[in-house]
């Protein structure tokens, strides 16, 4: 794909996805919109005040994700995930040069638990304030779709890659230390997404005339947590150690962890063992091709980054 000369404005450029996206932009001109701007960034205050600033493409990565430490208020989520999105989108609508708006939502804007496959047609019933605030932002965009401009709501599933911090790191620590994985009694199937594939999708959406709307983003294929442990161990040349402790005993231990704030909590146990299958068929049909990185190759790249 040839680099374009289009100007891009990005929120959340310093985050996990944003840092990886910067590597993919190469010589495409872009600016970061930041609350604590560096010399090359643009502050939110300046951006809101200077109504004559125009950009071809708006990429909205900023938002508030799950708060594992439980220190955030519900208002924090609404301000970060809905109010900021609404304000930025209004600016996009008023920008005469703007061509596309890419909003990173989440599959959790639709459902916290999935029976079978999650698709774009699945009725949305988010349960957490995170999911509800993301869904409210989606609805605002969908209710105000403009003519002559493209609007993309991307719903990624669990994203991984260099710089990732999350439950995959916890799993990798088990494999790296040679500790037995104690949750092998659970059988699940999950979708994952390489951050490189997500960045590639965003570049394609800026460059091509693809229909506006909601698109789920996931690598092709699903994996159990036990398979992930085996792949991690293989990447280090170690045998995988899978320990099948009875599921009922682990759930009881997790409830104790809830009260004592131990590493194993009910929420973490659910995230590590639940099934969550995300269909990417609509996206692949719109792009006319598969994603460039296979799920297996994406995991290999992430595991190599964990070694560093």
TrEMBL record:
<dbReference type="InterPro" id="IPR050177">
    <property type="entry name" value="Lipid_A_modif_metabolic_enz"/>
</dbReference>
<protein>
    <submittedName>
        <fullName>NAD-dependent epimerase/dehydratase family protein</fullName>
    </submittedName>
</protein>
<dbReference type="InterPro" id="IPR001509">
    <property type="entry name" value="Epimerase_deHydtase"/>
</dbReference>
<dbReference type="InterPro" id="IPR036291">
    <property type="entry name" value="NAD(P)-bd_dom_sf"/>
</dbReference>
<feature type="domain" description="NAD-dependent epimerase/dehydratase">
    <location>
        <begin position="8"/>
        <end position="217"/>
    </location>
</feature>
<dbReference type="Pfam" id="PF01370">
    <property type="entry name" value="Epimerase"/>
</dbReference>
């Amino acid at each position: 794909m040839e680099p374009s000369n289009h100007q891009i404005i990005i929120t959340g450029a310093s985050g996990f996805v944003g840092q990886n996206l910067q590597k993919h932009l190469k010589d495409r001109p872009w600016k970061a919109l930041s609350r604590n701007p560096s010399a090359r960034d643009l502050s939110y205050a300046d951006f809101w005040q200077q109504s004559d600033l125009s950009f071809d493409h708006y990429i909205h990565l900023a938002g508030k994700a799950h708060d594992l430490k439980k220190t955030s208020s519900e208002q924090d989520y609404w301000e970060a995930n809905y109010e900021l999105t609404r304000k930025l989108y209004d600016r996009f609508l008023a920008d005469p040069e703007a061509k596309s708006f890419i909003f990173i939502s989440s599959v959790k804007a639709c459902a916290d638990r999935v029976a079978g496959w999650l698709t774009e047609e699945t009725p949305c019933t988010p349960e957490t304030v995170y999911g509800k605030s993301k869904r409210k932002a989606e609805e605002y965009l969908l209710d105000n779709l403009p003519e002559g401009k493209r609007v993309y709501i991307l719903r990624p599933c669990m994203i991984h890659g260099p710089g990732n911090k999350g439950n995959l790191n916890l799993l990798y620590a088990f494999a790296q230390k040679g500790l037995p994985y104690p949750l092998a009694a659970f059988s699940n199937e999950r979708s994952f997404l390489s951050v490189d594939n997500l960045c590639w999708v965003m570049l394609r959406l800026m460059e091509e005339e693809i229909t506006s709307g909601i698109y789920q983003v996931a690598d092709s294929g699903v994996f159990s947590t036990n398979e992930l442990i085996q792949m991690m161990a293989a990447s280090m040349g170690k045998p995988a150690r899978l320990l099948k402790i009875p599921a009922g005993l682990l759930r009881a231990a997790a409830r104790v962890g809830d009260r004592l704030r131990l590493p194993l909590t009910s929420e973490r146990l659910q995230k590590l063992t639940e099934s969550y299958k995300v269909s990417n068929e609509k996206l692949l049909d719109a792009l006319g091709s598969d994603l460039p990185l296979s799920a297996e190759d994406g995991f290999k790249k992430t595991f190599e980054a964990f070694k560093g």
